[in-house]
Amino acid sequence: MLFSDVVAFLGLLSLASASTIPSFSKRDKGIPHDIATTIVNDFVSLLTAFNVDVAKNLLAPTFTDTSDSINFLAGLPLGSVTFPSPAAFIAGQGAQPPISLQVLNIDAITHEGHIVFRWVANVGGSLEVKGINVLYAIQSGKDDTVGPSGWQLNTVFSEFNSAAWFIDIGGSLVPPSSGKA
After folding, report:
1. Do β-strands 114-122 and 100-109 pair in parallel, antiparallel, or remain unpaired?
2. pTM score over 0.85
3. To which H or E segment does residue 34 belong?
4. Quick one: CA dihedral 10, 16, 21, 22, positive or negative?
5. Helix, coil or strand: residue 129
6. CA nearest 137: which of 119, 117, 118?
7. What is the pLDDT of residue 180?
8. What residues does each domain of the chain span?
């Protein structure tokens, strides 16, 4: 096969592939990037400077939050839903001291409202705590009457280095060595 034949074949293949990829225009009702970023920032603010009004606005009535990392620290059964409702989240998170948390990157935003971001936090000790969250946002309204532009959090999955968090809050365990094996 000649080089020009390969180029022509790849060109046709890319056209065929492009026709199977859905296009999202401004008229589509998917979550815009700026709204997803606002949702991440609002959610992070609930950890760094909790505000019940932000929580009530951001969390959908069907909101749940699941985290084996939190379940471990709180003595809850692993695999269970950590916060089964907005009220449970508000009561639990609202009672926690603020932490210093920095978003490292928003790694994914899907048209359907799935948002993945990584973060690093300091919870008062010497160890960094790194984690990842997967947020599922839903459009609950048409404007800013709820959430950013009508988008609210329906489901959150959060996992982080609970061993580092445990040590930072005064727990005792021996972490693995930092040297190479």
Report:
1. antiparallel
2. no
3. helix 33-48
4. positive
5. strand
6. 117
7. 61
8. 30-168
CB atoms within 10 A of CB 112: 10
Count of residues for the chain?
181
Number of C-beta neighbours around residue 127 at 10 A: 16
Q: Which amino acid is at 64?
A: T
Q: Say how many Å lie between the first and final Cα of the chain, rounded.
A: 49
C-alpha 108/C-alpha 104 separation (Å) is 12
Categorize the per-residue pLDDT at 151 as very low, low, confident or very high, splitting at 50, 70 and 90: very high
**What is the token pair recorded at 45?**
């603010």
- Which tokens is 16 given? 């065929």
Under DSSP, the state recorded for 147 is: T
Q: Give bridge partners of residue 137 from the DSSP assignment.
A: 153
DSSP 3-state of 86? helix
pLDDT, tens only, 124-149 = 888 999 999 999 999 998 777 789 99
DSSP 77-145: PTTS-SB-SHHHHHHHHHTSPP-EEEEEEEEEE-TTSEEEEEEEEE-SSSS-EEEEEEEEEEE--SSTT
* CATH 3.10.450.50 for domain 30-168: yes
| φ, ψ of residue 110 in degrees (nearest 5) | -100, 160
